Amino acid sequence: MNEYLYPIVFGVIAGTIGRMLMLRTDYRQYPTYLHGKVIHVALGFIAAALGAVAVPAILEMEFTAVTFLTVAATQFREVRNMERNTLTEIDGFELVPRGKTYIEGIAISFESRNYLVIFTGFVSTLFYILWNVYAAIVGAIISLLIAKFLQSGSTIKDIVEIEHHPVHFDGAGLYVDNIYIMNIGLQERQEEIRKYGMGFVLKPKNMNSITTIANLGQRQAILHDISISLGVIRDSGTPALTPLIKRDLDDGRIGIFILPQVRDVERAKKIIGAVPVLENAIRMPSQSKVHNKEAN
Amino acid sequence: MEIEKAILAVITLNESRISGGAPIFICEKTEELEQMAANLEAITDGIAHKLSDEIFIIVKH
C-alpha cells in the first residue's frame, strides 16, 4: 500500500462532504432533487480527488502533474455553462422568469463551489501528510468554515428598508405609493388587481444600494423569489396580471407590485428581505475615487 | 431591430378621432367598449390600456 493512500482518501472524503454541505435545495428547488444533486455530488467528488492528488504530486516533485488542475478549471467552467444553458432553457416556461442576472449568479456559484472543494481536498491531504490525521481534521473543518462563509452573500434587507403600501389607481394608472407601475384599462382587471395586488416600496439605505436595486436583473430576481414563495395569480395569456417593479427616478426607491396567492404582509416582507443580493448587480459608487473627492 | 411592442387593436366610441393602420373597432356605448376591450385582450394575449374614456388600445408587450 502506498503511503499517500490514506491522506488522499481523507482529502477526497472531506472535499465531497464539503460539496454536500454546500448543496442546498431550498425553496428554489435548484439543483433539482435527486438527479440534479447526483450530478453535483459526483462533480464534487472529482474536484476533491483533484485537490487531494495534487499534494503527493508536488511532494514527489512531479510538477507537470499539477498542470492537470488546468484541465479541472476547464471542466468546471463547463459546469457553469451547463447550468447557465439549462436554466436559460427552462426560464421561458416560468410564470415569473428568474432573469439572466439571477441565472448567471447561480451558474457562477456552482463553478466557484467546485474550486472551494478542490481547496478543501488540497488542505486536508496536505495537513495529513505534513502532520497527522487530527491536523487534517482541523484543516478540513477550517476550510469548510471558509467555504461556508464564502457561500453566503448579503440579502436585500441589508441594503434597503421595506415598506408596505397598498396599490391604488389614479384613472387607469396603477400606482404603488407615488410610483407609477402601468396602465390598466379595464374596470374588471382593476377590480382584480385591487383585490389580489400588494404593493411594497424598497427604500435604499445608501448610494451603493440605489444602483444595486435599480439593476433590472436584481429586480427580476425579487419578483421571481416572491412569486415562488407566495404563489402568483396569473397564467399564460394574462399579461395584464404581471408582477412588476418600477423605479422612482427622483430618489431611487423602487415600487414592487405583486399578485401573491398568500396575502400576508409580514411574510411578504420577510421574503423580500431574504432575496439574495446578486453579485452581478452590486455596484460600489462609494469606492470610486472621483465620487469620494466630490462628496468630501 | 426587433419591434417589441405593437398596438394590436384600437377600440373607440369616437370614430372621428381615430385613423391609421391598426384594426379599429367602433362601439356605441361605454359598456360595449369595455366588453370589446376585455374580449380582445383575452384573445390577443395583449393588455388593454385606456387612453381616455372613449379610446382603448390593445398592446402586445
TrEMBL record, chain A:
Transmembrane region(s): 6-26, 38-59, 126-147
Keywords: Membrane, Transmembrane, Transmembrane helix
Family annotation (InterPro entries): YIEGIA
Pfam families the record matches: YIEGIA (PF14045)
Name of the protein in its database record: YIEGIA protein
TrEMBL record, chain B:
Organism: Oceanobacillus limi
Protein's recorded name: Uncharacterized protein
Pfam families (alphabetical): YIEGIA_cap
